[in-house]
Design goal:
Layout: H1 13-27, H2 37-63, H3 71-82, H4 95-101, H5 114-131, H6 143-149, H7 167-228, H8 238-254, H9 265-273
Domain No apical meristem-associated C-terminal: 90-251
Biased composition (Polar residues): 127-158
Pfam families: NAM-associated
Length: 286
């Protein structure tokens, strides 16, 4: 709640703890008890006191400069040191929130390490030299000393404690993130619409091709029917009659009729359309 740069610096104490109470009771586990704002304040104070104490023990272990000790080794030694305090004989009980609050400024022990103390002495020395310059101190003898003066704010381990970004920067960053999200969402919607249009166009094209194919097939059938209906006896030119007869035979083979070519046009007509109105159908002859 207090780490939020947009809201954290512009709220009263009552507003802060009202928001903490609301957030806790909305997100708490069912097995946890419901707490009031006052109860949460007391709980935070207890955690703050224990975390500060453990941070102090960690600083003491770090001041000993243990050779080859890892962060976990330092933590274990600090917890054993914490057991010497009569108020913490049962040990540190807030490991579940340690990784969250250990770097909060409010939860630090405010005790400088040996490295920070040495840097402070060097800074005081440089400040006094700048106020009372001597011929020897007007220009540094080596670049290392000048470089050192630029790194006085480095914390232990090379990771400075950064404050939250300012309110205006946080709002600007949030606004830019929202604009990027909106642009990406709009681009995604536009791409979806384009894909829908392409799919619809492709479906329309396929339908048009299918209709064209059906139309061509229908026109071809009409033309073939016209050829089949030609009366060969009415054609006087033998060459034309032979050509028409060959076309009729080809059409019949394509449609599944394998009859031999009829000797005359009238028989060709009967082979195609059957015995329409003949005596075999019990229908009077024409």
């Amino acid at each position: 709640m207090t780490q939020d740069p947009i809201i954290g610096t512009n709220q009263s104490l009552e507003q802060l703890w009202a928001r903490v109470e609301e957030k806790y009771n909305l997100t708490r586990d069912k097995s946890w008890v419901e707490r009031s704002a006052l109860s949460l304040q007391c709980r935070i104070q207890t955690i703050e006191k224990a975390v500060k104490k453990l941070n102090g023990c960690i600083r003491q272990v770090e001041n000993l400069n243990p050779s080859g000790a890892s962060d976990q080794d330092i933590m274990n030694r600090a917890k054993r040191m914490l057991l010497d305090d009569p108020n913490y004989k049962k040990g540190f009980k807030f490991d579940h929130v340690w990784h969250i609050v250990r770097n909060f400024e409010k939860f630090k022990d405010n005790v400088m390490t040996s490295k920070q103390i040495s840097r402070k002495h060097a800074f005081d020395y440089l400040s006094s030299e700048s106020k009372n310059p001597t011929p020897e101190s007007q220009a540094p003898e080596s670049p290392e000393l000048s470089q050192f003066s630029f790194n006085l704010n480095d914390s232990v381990g090379g990771s400075p404690s950064e404050r939250p970004i300012g309110q205006k920067k946080a709002k600007l960053k949030k606004k830019m993130d929202d604009e990027v999200t909106t642009s990406l969402s709009r681009l995604k919607d536009d791409n979806s619409k384009i894909m829908e249009m392409l799919e619809k166009t492709n479906a329309d094209r396929q339908m048009f091709i299918e209709m064209q194919s059906k139309n061509l097939a229908f026109q071809q059938m009409k033309y073939e029917d016209k050829i089949l209906m030609r009366d060969l006896n009415s054609i006087t030119d033998p060459n034309i009659r032979a050509c028409i007869q060959a076309q009729q035979q080809e059409i019949l083979q394509k449609r599944g009729h394998f009859q031999q070519p009829p000797p005359s046009g009238s028989n060709m007509f009967n082979d195609i359309f059957g015995n329409i109105g003949g005596s075999g159908d019990n229908i009077p002859d024409y």
